[in-house]
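User: Predict structure, ligand adenosine monophosphate.
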Amino acid sequence: SKHSALTKVGDPVPAAWNATGAEYPEDARLHDLFMAQARRSPDTIALSFEDETMTYLELDERSNQLAHYLIRQGVGPDTLVGISTYRSLEMVVGLLGILKAGGAYTPIDPSYPKERLTFMLKDAAPVVLLTQTAVRPTLPVHRCPTLCLDSEWATIATESKNAPVVTLAAANLAYMIYTSGSTGNPKGALNCHRGVCNRLLWMQDRYHLTPMDRVLQKTPFSFDVSVWEFFWPLLVGARLVIARPGGHQDPAYLARLIRKQEVTVIHCVPSILRLFLDEPTVPQCSTLRHVFCSGEALPAELQKIFFARLPCNLHNLYGPTEAAVDVTHWTCRRDNPSSIVPIGRPVANTQIHILDEQLQPVPVGSEGELHIGGLQVGRGYHNRPELTAEKFISDPFSPDPAARLYKTGDLARWLPDGEIEYLGRIDFQVKIRGFRIELGEIEGALAQHPAIQQAVVVAVDGPGRDKRLVAYLNKRPGHVVTVTELRNHLLVRLPEYMVPALFIWLDQIPLSPNGKVDRKALPKPSNHRPALARGYVAAQLPIEQQLSVLWSKLLDVEPVGIDDSFFELGGTSLLAVRMTSAWQKQTGHELPLVKVFQYPTIAELAAWLN
Ligand code: AMP
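Assistant: Predicted complex:
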């Protein structure tokens, strides 16, 4: 802005930096924007998934039929509708059908463990749960009426193909997404049509997607980045290319899909971008126009690798689930000599306030907590009035008495040129592969194990520059417990990305003088093989020896036995990708990623490779 050149460190933040007003249709609902496009381009392909496609007209009519059915089940404004499906065409029909019925969609990720699903279904108490034949038997026992979008389609197909008439305001809910909660259970963040429409209309204004574009849908729908992946292309007549289930973890598959489907726009959290850029065929993904990063800090050194590998644009977006996906944006510069990649400036109709503990603005250059104001601030947390009141506070900077600020818990500062730099967290929330995790939630789950007296979990840099979780544990006297057992204990309670890579036993958890856990005094993980359920068996065959040398190097563990599970030795899904690509480089033989999950020990994997 014209003021920025004059601003120095220590100055008050110029009001111009938050002057983001833009006139978008105020009363739009998300599905209206799609329906308007479906009228403009009925015969254009809207969705592609494996060998199937669906046109705008088909998607519009099918979601209308589903909406009529849902309305008769009692769905309407501000009611929650669960959706538990794998990535598929039906998933998108489901999301739109829920919105058109006036409901708010609530992703219930079928890959989550039963205990977590049970909690989510009980907490959300959806009016209806949409699912698929393959998913239904894997769900825990629950009380919600369910509908299988595939096998029970005949029931829906009798409904009218015309859009239902529903009275729904932009202030009504569009979706609820669960994020990790510090007190042991996830919490549902409620978002309104107004906020998400603002976010999407801003994105179109800023980046101009065209009907020629193809956007990849690979982000799990329980992560809010998926909201723009699904809906942005569908508002402008572009095509949504849906990755196969599980495909989002496999860079080689993604690069193939991008080339085959001529994808132009993708999202990657930075840790996945790093892996993706390692994939040898990435420079051939020549149709890519925009790569969007968000979810965790984008290191300058990764930006450099990106520009060396791809000629397209790289963007750094920032925002929490509580405020309609992203609230700041930055376009990376090839010639940027700075070691900082900022999170940029606020999006349209959004204000960013960086405040001290008394809620006073800090000057340019000073660190403070980032607060979000404006249209995208969500409604709060489902069933959590106290937490909502604590995090969504009255906005002292707005003339509107109803306006609220969301307290992000992020530390940031304004740079003199009007961009914001992200500096970290004020609490124990961390990001692993872009997944938001409250360490307290993992500690709570560990403390439920009878052998554990006390548990402290930290996120630290592990092999391959990836962050990983390490659990420090204090045993109750007289108990014996293996890593195998602890992992299994957690895997029924937490999503796989919340299970620590390493478990370290301490006689005493170090405390600081005030009696709090002294996280800085926790010892560094050693590289000794941990105690597993099965004992150590050395590699015999040459192929086993080759694998064990590779694993030992990648995982930084010594020794590696042939019956040891990759994941019990500290392996993560990212390290599994690194392992398979290193194996391919070494031997010239393909090792598909799924095989590591299917055959997680050296003995099993070697048998498959032979
Ligand atoms: P989520 O609700 O999963 O989107 O997580 C939101 C949190 O992720 C934010 O509060 C930040 O701590 C972090 N985050 C998101 N985007 C960025 C970014 N571009 N740079 C640094 N941290 C980010």
